[in-house]
Amino acid sequence: MADNPENLQYTKDHEWIRVEGEIGTIGITRFAQEQLGDIVHVTLPRSGSSFEASESFGEIESVKTFSELFIPVSGEVTEVNEALNDSPELVNDAPYDGGWMIRVKISNAAELDKLLSAAEYDDFIAQQSGD
């Protein structure tokens, strides 16, 4: 089950963040997109929007349900994945690559310490799934 990249950090809300310098790229995990099913729409914020850690930054809609997206760390949105407007299925096809959602300038790097490693996230999923 564990195909979560080691170079990312994870939340218990099933978001991931890839940190490069002071910029964090954020998306949802493979587990999350599998639970949601086929993604049909993603609502994302505008560049320049600021959020506090754990705040909702958008919504994702699938054929089964819709769910809020929660930001792992505080920061200002520097880039939005516009490709998701026309191709929301990228979240299903490549959740860790082409299906990323936003990039943020991280305002409090200490918040990264509260996130899960890939191994911790795998354990969390296993507990949730009852494996």
Low-confidence stretches: none
Radius of gyration: 14 Å
Report strand order across the widest sheet.
Answer: 1-2-3-9-8-5
Strand composition percent? 25-35%
Helix content: 10-25%
Structural class label: alpha+beta
Query: What average pLDDT do the residues reach?
Result: 95
Describe the structure using short key phrases.
21% helix; 3-stranded antiparallel beta sheet; alpha+beta; OB fold (Dihydrolipoamide Acetyltransferase, E2P); globular; 34% strand; 131 residues
Descriptive report:
- It is a single chain.
- The protein starts with 8 loop residues before the first strand and ends with a helix.
- The protein has one domain (9-108): Beta Barrel (OB fold (Dihydrolipoamide Acetyltransferase, E2P)), CATH 2.40.50.
- The chain has helices at residues 30-36, 83-86, 90-93, 118-129; strands spanning 9-10, 15-20, 23-28, 39-43, 50-51, 56-62, 66-70, 75-80, 102-106.
- The protein has 131 residues and is an alpha+beta fold.
- The strands form 2 sheets. It has a 6-stranded antiparallel beta sheet with strand order 1-2-3-9-8-5. Strands 4-6-7 form a 3-stranded antiparallel beta sheet.
- Helices cover 21% and strands 34% of the residues.
- The mean pLDDT is 95.
List the helices and strands and how they pair.
Blueprint: E1 9-10, E2 15-20, E3 23-28, H1 30-36, E4 39-43, E5 50-51, E6 56-62, E7 66-70, E8 75-80, H2 83-86, H3 90-93, E9 102-106, H4 118-129
Antiparallel strand pairs: 1-2, 2-3, 3-9, 4-6, 5-8, 6-7, 8-9
